[in-house]
Design goal:
This protein is α/β, with parallel strands linked by helices. Helix content is about 35%, strand content about 10%. The strands form 4 sheets. Strands 1, 2, 3, 13 and 14 form a 5-stranded antiparallel β-sheet that branches. The longest helix has 24 residues. The N terminus and C terminus are likely disordered.
Length: about 625
């Protein structure tokens, strides 16, 4: 799988040219994991220029429906099954290996199970926080569209499960004393339409909980009225609307005033909701003014129906919220940055993101991420439009730590679906052997490639949680025979072939990847990042003491995690690296649960004593 990222492509192409030695310097005072000072300055300089330019562009950006285009996000995602009556659903990817001269051709990826029901809804409150502003859309209806999409997502899932859909008995979003009421007048509407909007904006709409269920609370409630076109009382209607009927009412509302941006943003927000449900984090909606419509007849919005057609693909992301987390994490990773340079690269985005989060300027932060990773822009627009949530407030902490926190982790399937690489495993480099040495990251990829076919590679079948590549090279003579057998191959490339849904009864349904799948080319920044000067560089590259004062810990964590991934395959020349305190297995515990296995039982962890015994035998 060879994925290209938007970002500093000019820089990344040469990112592996200068690395610190595996064994460190001859002087005992030189740390074996510390990169060369010139290399640190080079990375810091490129990071500074790149992120300063993005900051400038994001400050000048404005919201529009085009910026939240979902096409690049969903084009590679398999469609959710039209029928799924079981409580759980499983799925796995199939891959084909290109560039191998030996008998390695296919592999089956990890099998991902998930439960389709939820025990609790996501708590949601309408607040006065700053909303994303669409200059060409004067009327405010984002909360209405969001709640409508949540209903449509939930009911679309229940329809596929052949489950009954029942309205709850609750009518109001708040019964607190002094609650503020937002009045919404639909104009001419049927009793069924009025009933649906009343339920969609109530505390909870339907009785069955799904990944997209919300429960409104707080001191703001909605009061929906209409000029009824029939004599039926809305209160007497008990049959819940189907997802298609609800979509018709959403399209009618969207057609009464310019609203394409809010409609699309609301869908992006609803799409990200399972991630908040997974971590138990509440969300916030920006408030809106009273809305009075004078619609007559049945105006329609083709844009709304276009968005509705994307639902089965967005449901796949929400079916397993770890997919959402994986897609979102892609914005923090950068190709070509070795594990011991993580702090140097992330210092600049940390400074910018912390400033924007402190000011509550989540719209500019969303623009910043969208410029950096256009293919996953809709996801981050959706997440950050909720304002100061548990996810958005922890972005600076994530950048300072440098490593993904559970549930954020790289998944190769999601990297392909979203056309956004998340790990060094997704981006093979150039030919293997150079001057009788092989890049350590290439050796480790080959160990993973052969894990199902070579007994000696069996311990490496877990996909690495750490996305940052190791530094250094390994002499060919010190590599395992399973690796040497492939050093004459062309560069291995795992090509995503298909996705297979597995129902509870064992039935499988394969969804093939289109052979002519197209990817939108992300915008390039070479013009802004080449030449001697860049007008938006704000200060000099940060010296090492400044990185320490920021309590940056990404390089230490990344180095420790990635080297421990291959702790049972330590080459003799790398003794000083593996014995360094940042790498030693006693310093860190791997956060969160392990990644799903490709096949077979979990690999038993090596004991500290075994590692120390191995180190003591090296001379």
């Amino acid at each position: 799988m060879n994925l290209s990222n938007a970002s500093s492509s000019q820089y990344s192409s040469s990112a592996s040219s200068t690395q610190c030695s595996s064994s460190g310097g001859e002087d005992g005072d030189v740390s074996p994991i510390q990169p060369e000072p010139d290399r640190v300055q080079e990375v810091a300089y490129h990071s500074q220029r790149y992120w300063s330019e993005l900051k400038h562009r994001s400050a000048a950006a404005s919201m529009s429906a085009d910026k939240i285009s979902l096409n690049t996000l969903i084009y590679g995602i398999p469609k959710f099954p039209d029928e799924c009556t079981e409580e759980t659903l499983n799925g796995y990817a199939s891959w084909r290996l290109d560039g191998c001269k030996l008998d390695l051709y296919q592999r089956r990826g990890s099998r991902y199970p998930w439960t389709l029901t939820r025990d609790q809804p996501t708590m949601c409150e309408v607040t006065e926080h700053r909303r994303f502003c669409f200059a060409d859309e004067k009327a405010e209806a984002l909360p209405l569209f969001f709640l409508g999409w949540c209903y449509i997502f939930s009911v679309a899932l229940l329809e596929r499960r052949r489950q009954p859909i029942c309205y709850t008995e609750e009518e109001e979003t708040s019964t607190e004393t002094g609650a503020k009421t937002i009045k919404v007048h639909l104009g001419h509407a049927t009793a069924v339409e009025l009933k649906w909007w009343t339920k969609a904006t109530s505390s909870s709409a339907i009785t069955t909980l799904t990944p997209w269920s919300v429960r409104l609370h707080g001191n703001i409630r909605f009061h929906v009225t209409a000029d009824l076109e029939d004599e039926i009382s809305a209160s007497g209607i008990s049959t819940a609307c189907s997802s298609e009927e609800a979509m018709q009412y959403m399209a009618k509302l969207a057609a009464t005033f310019p609203s394409a941006g809010q409609l699309t943003l609301a869908l992006a927000m609803a799409s990200s909701l399972p991630l908040f449900n997974l971590i138990g984090a509440p969300v916030q909606l920006p408030t809106m003014s009273d809305l009075a419509l004078n619609s007559k007849g049945s105006p329609d919005s083709p844009a709304a129906h276009e968005l509705y057609e994307k639902l089965p693909y967005l449901m796949t992301l929400g079916w397993n919220p770890h997919f959402l987390a994986s897609a979102a994490y892609g914005v923090f990773w950068e190709p070509g940055i070795q594990c011991n340079l993580v702090d140097t690269w992330l210092y600049s985005p940390l400074s910018i993101a912390r400033d924007l989060v402190t000011k509550g300027n989540f719209e500019q932060l969303a623009h910043l991420f969208a410029l950096h990773r256009p293919s996953i822009a809709p996801l981050w627009y959706g997440i950050l439009a909720f304002g100061g949530t548990k996810i958005s407030l922890n972005i600076p902490l994530c950048l300072r730590g440098g490593m993904p926190a559970v549930p954020f982790r790289p998944l190769p399937e999601v990297a392909f679906w979203t056309s956004s690489a998340q790990s060094f495993m997704d981006n093979p480099l150039t030919p293997y052997v150079f001057k009788d040495e092989v890049a350590r990251e290439a050796v480790w990829r080959l160990r993973y490639d052969t894990c199902n076919d070579e007994p000696s590679s069996h311990p490496f079948r877990n996909y690495p949680l750490c996305p940052w590549p190791p530094f250094g090279n390994i002499p060919v003579r010190e590599t395992d025979l399973s690796v040497r057998a492939h050093l004459d191959c062309q560069r291995h490339k795992w090509v995503y072939w298909s996705w297979t849904w597995v129902r509870g009864n064992g039935d499988e349904m394969e969804v093939e990847c289109p052979p002519d799948i197209l990817r939108a080319s992300p915008p390039k920044l070479e013009d802004a990042l080449t030449g001697e000067g860049c007008s938006y560089v704000e200060h000099a590259a940060p010296p090492l003491p400044l990185l320490k004062s920021e309590r940056m810990m990404g390089s230490d964590r990344a180095t420790g995690e990635i080297f421990r991934w291959m702790a049972s395959d330590m080459e003799p020349s790398g003794k000083k690296v593996y014995s360094h305190p940042s790498v030693h297995a006693t310093k860190f515990a791997v956060p969160g649960e392990p990644m799903p296995l490709v096949t077979g039982p979990k690999v038993a962890a090596l004991s500290n004593e075994a590692i120390e015994l191995w180190l003591s035998t090296m001379h």
